[in-house]
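Example 3.2
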Amino acid sequence: MQADSSVRELIISTATRLFLSQGYNQTGINQIIEEAGVAKASLYYHFPSKEDLGVAYLIKRGEKWFGGLEEFLKEAKDPRERLIGVFEYRAVYLEQNDFTGCSYTRILSELPQRGTKLNNQAVANKERQRKYFMDLVGQLDCIPEEKKQDVANTVFLLFDGGTLQCQVYRETRPMEHARKAVIELLRCAGK
């Protein structure tokens, strides 16, 4: 069982590196098998299709993102500090991951067909991020109840836009601009 688990993780790790560096569509199963150094039967034992491997990749990316975020924010004392901290974490995360952008958005742009397992997982991961912002904004006493949903959606748009601009320009400055915009948005929305 231990060996099965480590082979599965090796396959996901190899696929992750390749999906991030060259894209999902440009990565073939044979390349993953070769670079992971596993037998074709081993890959198909764990992942009956490339799409199943893609879903596992997105799940693992979501676990990595939220796990790292919680660790980064463990000292944050209130929802406002956590909200601002998400933007700080995203900048660090993007820099550590060579500005590859958002794994979920990349999959959605490569495979826009709705209703597939892979597309559904990417949308679910994006929705989990959006809900995280909704929950944080919902805890802010400084924002009137009737403005909270609009503020949360705007914060999420700034997050996604900042992420994309960091990927395009390969620097963290756009996320810093987004973070400052969120601070100003919270100040103005609270009036």
